[in-house]
Amino acid sequence: MYERELAATAKAMVAPSKGLLAADESYSTANKRFEKLGIPTTAEMRQAYRELLFTTPGIGDFLSGVILFDETIRQSTQDGTPFTKVLLDAGIIPGIKLDAGAEALAKAPGETVTQGLDGLRDRIAEYYKMGARFAKWRAVIKIGDNMPSDRCLKTNAHALARYAALCQEGGLVPIVEPEVLMDGDHTLERSYAVHHEVLKTVFDELYIQGVEPDQMILKPSMVISGEKSPQQASVEDVARWTVKCLLERVPAAIPGCAFLSGGQSGELATAHLNAMHVLFKDQLPWQLTFSYSRALQQSAMQIWNGQDANVAAAQKEFYHRAKLNSAAALGQYQPEMEKIA
């Protein structure tokens, strides 16, 4: 029923030089970020901040889509324009986060499984009517002693695949996000091995559930050293090992991979994406782009700091970060570009 629409939307989501803004922070996540900056943790302030992002002049030049949260997709600008219309008018596709967060996995200490499958078909239908045309579901994979377990990998992969199948049935392009956390002291090689197994397990389940690869987007984490590892990989090594893993495990039929930043700084996430394009150029069977949250908007949030007087400056910073990542998605980023003229 939705095959052509889904394929066209998926392709548009990873159009060259464009990426996704992950503005789907839950109440608790958004409030934690506000608290660190002394910004009041109210619905009004969350609305004001998202309006700042979505109404940034020219932002549609660099963003193909925005992932929204349930609260956000129902909100409007101060003049009453629904956020979904604001995005569509800017040429940006609205999307929605569908998972209900990670909970402890039974008999797997320290590991989690993502919730949200109950009632998912009805929620997909509601969000489609509200204007969403893609969705996101995040699985959380930790690296540690005896982690990740086979139970964790298979349970999360099965949930991701069921979610993706339901999305395609209901007209939403599923973003499949198996995030391997950078928390810990693991090496680059250990990160690669875990990513390799995660992607194998996920795509096996996607196949079993009948998910069409040309109608979905993969949102992977990068193969990167643990943040506490004494051996931090170079930008070039992260790019090489990440693309090597993707080439070995991701079907060529996938339109694109939109990386999460996973706690990286804005500059580092941009540099890693750029290096993948510089090193591999035309060897990639799919588009590689960004789907960042903090790496796109944290510096803008700090500048805004909840003050109306700072909106223009914050928008300038947000625009600048998006422009740099757009350049990285073409392999045209240079560190000197970090300076704002």
Compute the number of structural domains.
1
* SSE topology string: HEHHEHHEEEHEHEHEHEHEHH
Q: In DSSP terms, counting alpha (H) and pi (I) runs of 4 or more, how many helices?
A: 12
Helix amount: 40-55%
Strand order of the largest sheet: 8-7-6-3-2-1-10-9
- Just name the CATH architecture: Alpha-Beta Barrel
- Mean of residue pLDDT? 97
Backbone structural class: alpha/beta
CATH class: Alpha Beta
How many strands, what sense, and barrel or not for the largest sheet? 8 strands, parallel
Number of E strands:
10
Q: Which tags fit this structure?
A:
12 helices; two-stranded antiparallel ribbon; about 45% helix; TIM Barrel; alpha/beta; single chain; about 350 residues
Can you give a write-up of this model?
The longest helix has 21 residues, at 150-170. The chain has 12 helices and 10 strands. The chain has an 8-stranded parallel sheet with strand order 8-7-6-3-2-1-10-9. The protein starts with a helix and ends in a 13-residue tail after the last helix. The radius of gyration is 19 Å and the shape is globular. The chain has one domain (3-338): TIM Barrel (Alpha-Beta Barrel), CATH 3.20.20.70. It has 341 residues and is an alpha/beta fold. It has helices at 3-13, 27-37, 43-54, 70-73, 83-89, 120-129, 150-170, 188-208, 235-249, 266-280, 294-304, 311-328, and strands spanning 19-23, 63-68, 93-97, 102-104, 112-114, 134-141, 173-180, 217-218, 256-259, 287-292.
